[in-house]
Amino acid sequence: MSIGIIGLGKLGCSLAMGLKKEGFIISGLYSRSIHSVQFINDRMGTSFENNLVDTVKKSDAVFITVSDSSICDVVSAITSNLEQESIRSKIFIHCSGALSTSVLEPLAQKGGYTASLHPIQTFADKEMGWKGLYGIYYGFEGCNQAHESIKPIVLSFKGKILNIDKEYRHLYHVAACIASNYLVALTYISGCLLESLGLKFKEGVEALKPLMDKTKSNIDSLGCINALTGPISRGDIETVAGHIEAINEKNPGILDAYKALGKITVEIGLKKGTINNEEAELLYKL
Fold it and tell me: Within 13 A of 158's CA, how many CA atoms are on the CB side?
C-alpha cells in the first residue's frame, strides 16, 4: 500500500518517518511549507516535490494531518483539483481527535473511503516524534474498507485500535485532552506554588518529577483508584483546610481548580474505601 501525507507538522512528520521505517511506501508529500517537505526528504533520503495533486494520485491511502480548522480546506482542494477517478476507492484518513469523518464527506461522495485515525499520544517534535507511534491506542471511526486498510499500519506500530462512535467524538477527545494537556497545566500550577515560596520554577518542577513518575508507576501497577494517596484519601480534614487557607493567601487564582479536583479526589477515596461517608461530606463542604 502506497501512502501519501498532506500536512507536515509534528504528527505528519512523525507518520512519514515511522511508516517509512516500517516498510510502507511513501508515495507523496504535501505541506503549506516547502521547508517541511525538504525536512522529510532530508531525513528519509527522498526527493518528493511539494505537490497536492501528485500526492493523491500516486497514493492508495492519504493521511490528512493538518490542523482541525484546515481539514475542510484540504478536502475542498482535493475535490476541486482532481477528477472523481483519481479519488474513487482511495482511503482518506484525517488524524483529528475531535472531528468525525463527516468533514471528509465530499471525498466519500466521490467514491473515496474515509476514516479518522487519532493516535492517543502527544507529539512534541518533528525529529523523534515517530517513536511515539509505537505501543499506543489509536481512536478509529470510519468505514469497513478503511478499517481493513488501516489495521496493518496500526499493527506495524504494535498498537491497538479503539473504535469510537461518531456521536461520542468530543467526549473521547476531552478524555485525551485532560490526560495530556491538563497534566501539563497541573504541573505548571504545582511549579507556580513552589515558585511562590522563593524556589526557581524549573527547580520546583524538577523536584516534583520523581513524585509524578512514581504516581504513574502506581497507576500502572495498582490501578487508578488504588494508586490514590494523600490527605484526602486519609480523610485528613485539617490538612485539606490548611491547603485551602494557604492557596487563598498565596495564589488564589488556582483555588477553584484545587477545589474542583479535590471533590473528584473525595469520590475516588470513597471508591477506594479509605474514607467513610461522614468524612467525605466534611471534605465536600470544605
Answer: 5
Taking 3-state DSSP, the helix, strand and coil percentages for the chain, each rounded to the nearest 5, stand at 60, 15, 25
DSSP code of residue 141: E
Residue pLDDT, tens place only, 138-157: 999 999 999 999 999 999 99
Helices (H) and strands (E) in the chain, counts: 12, 7
> Considering only CA atoms, which of 188, 211, 214 is closest in space to residue 201?
188
The values of phi and psi at residue 220, to 5°, are -60, -40
In Å, what is the CA distance from 230 to each residue of 195, 215, 265, 274?
22, 11, 10, 11
Cα–Cα distance measured from residue 38 to residue 34, given in angstroms and rounded to the nearest whole number:
6
Q: Could you give the CA distance from residue 228 to residue 100 in angstroms, rounded to a whole number? A: 35
What is d(CA 176, CA 123) in angstroms, rounded to the nearest whole number?
13
Q: State the pairing for strand pair 137-142/113-119.
A: antiparallel
Neighbours of 193 (CB within 10 A): 18
| Alpha carbon distance, N-terminus to C-terminus of the chain | 59
Determine the Cα–Cα distance for residues 145 and 219; give it in Å rounded to an integer. 37
Closest among 260, 278, 280, 284 to 269, alpha carbons compared: 280
Strands 61-64 and 2-6: parallel
| Backbone phi and psi for residue 53, each to the nearest 5 degrees, phi listed first | -60, -50
Task: Please tell me whether the overall predicted TM-score, pTM, comes out greater than 0.85 for this model.
Answer: yes
| Per-residue pLDDT tens digits for 171-181 | 999 999 999 99
